Amino acid sequence: MINLANLDLNLLRTLDVLLTEHHVTRAAERLHLSQPSVSVHLSKLRALFNDPLLIPDSRGMKPTALADELRQPLRQALESLEKAVLTSVPFEPALSQQTWRLSASDYSEFTIIQPLMNVLFQEAPQSRIAVTQMIPGRLARQMERGEIDLAFHIRENAPQELRSKALFSERYVLVGRAGHPVLRQPVSLGSFCQLKQVVVSPDGGGFVGMTDEVLKEKGLARDVVLSVPHFHFVVSVLKTSDLVAMLPQRLVQDQTGLVLAEPPLELPPFELVMLWHERSHRDPAHQWLRAKIAGVCG
């Protein structure tokens, strides 16, 4: 029988992370502890539960049957405790030393994180921002594990299990260099299809996008000659060549050296949303940050 009066909650936090990571070194990194400290915690937990809890295997460590039984109720208990504590502790941005972990594409870095920085560092001068590459398939899991605080994604592709808030709606425009001979006047659909174009393919190497799907419905195709993984490289390419691209308007509307034109076909707009996990929904610090981001995007 475990004596709750003598139970160290830090041990339970360590166990929760170990049951997620199945690896002492990775758990130590998440807990901001040394590997020996986590090993000591694991030894105390084994004695406490009279069970190995985690045993070595080829990929790191494998939970025992008891550990598997503990995983869900332990997570729920810790989340309930976090909610109870957080609601009674006000967030003071001027004193916060929080490191915010944001997941974003280079488009979201430019349209959201860059304008956010001035506000954040002015009101919370001791805070930091760590931006990680957006990997949509891993997003929900990363947030569940506490590796990411917030993410920015297109509404239609966002994981349904995450909480979300719409930030803005975006439209596409046709973009080329200033003085581009074709963009000096309205572009016909025929001329558009003959222009040599660039597409952004986040997965790498794709030459087909939404524009091509709309054209295909009309029995048409365009001349895509370059595929790149990032938006900012496209901007550089457009300024130094006669290539053109269909790009989100917010990305290019204030760029010098470019001209924006109405495309000769209508593309559906997309909605960009902010995503977060239920575990941080009531955290005053998260609520403050989400409000600042909404204000910047408003």
TrEMBL record:
<dbReference type="Pfam" id="PF03466">
    <property type="entry name" value="LysR_substrate"/>
</dbReference>
<dbReference type="InterPro" id="IPR050389">
    <property type="entry name" value="LysR-type_TF"/>
</dbReference>
<dbReference type="GO" id="GO:0003677">
    <property type="term" value="F:DNA binding"/>
</dbReference>
<protein>
    <submittedName>
        <fullName>HTH-type transcriptional regulator SyrM 1</fullName>
    </submittedName>
</protein>
<dbReference type="InterPro" id="IPR000847">
    <property type="entry name" value="LysR_HTH_N"/>
</dbReference>
<keyword id="KW-0805">Transcription regulation</keyword>
<dbReference type="GO" id="GO:0003700">
    <property type="term" value="F:DNA-binding transcription factor activity"/>
</dbReference>
<dbReference type="InterPro" id="IPR036388">
    <property type="entry name" value="WH-like_DNA-bd_sf"/>
</dbReference>
<dbReference type="Pfam" id="PF00126">
    <property type="entry name" value="HTH_1"/>
</dbReference>
<dbReference type="InterPro" id="IPR005119">
    <property type="entry name" value="LysR_subst-bd"/>
</dbReference>
<comment type="similarity">
    <text>Belongs to the LysR transcriptional regulatory family.</text>
</comment>
<keyword id="KW-0804">Transcription</keyword>
<feature type="domain" description="HTH lysR-type">
    <location>
        <begin position="7"/>
        <end position="64"/>
    </location>
</feature>
<dbReference type="InterPro" id="IPR036390">
    <property type="entry name" value="WH_DNA-bd_sf"/>
</dbReference>
<keyword id="KW-0238">DNA-binding</keyword>
